[in-house]
Amino acid sequence: MLSKAIPVVALFVAAAAFADAAVEPALPNVEDNIHAMDTDHNGMVSVSEVRAYLEARHGKNYEKALLDDLEAKAVGKSCASPFSRSLY
Fold it and tell me: What's the CA gap between 25 and 6, in Å, rounded?
């Protein structure tokens, strides 16, 4: 009788593991987040796009002081570099 119960238990455990995996949503990767932030589709994410994305997800004035500082330091600067690539 015990030998018949083991495959049933194994099947139940496998089904439970599959159900847990199916319920948990996949987390977006970095590239997915960059695509979501890059609203003008120029392949670069500006500070204002980062701010809009974060405020849409976390509410108005999310990390306001940090983003204000980042915007002040980013005026007139570009982040183009040899290691960056176009996303489009």
Answer: 31
* For range 3-22, the mean pLDDT: 53
Sign of the dihedral through C-alpha 70, 63, 56, 58: positive
User: Whole-model pTM above 0.85?
Assistant: no
Give the C-alpha separation, 56 to 53, whole Å. Answer: 5
- Tokens at 39, concatenated: 């609203």
Residue-wise burial string across 3-26, b where 16 or more C-beta atoms lie within 10 A, e elsewhere: eeeeeeeeeeeeeeeeeeeeeeee
- The span from the CA of 13 to the CA of 33, in Å, is 34
The amino acid present at 11, given as its one-letter code, is L
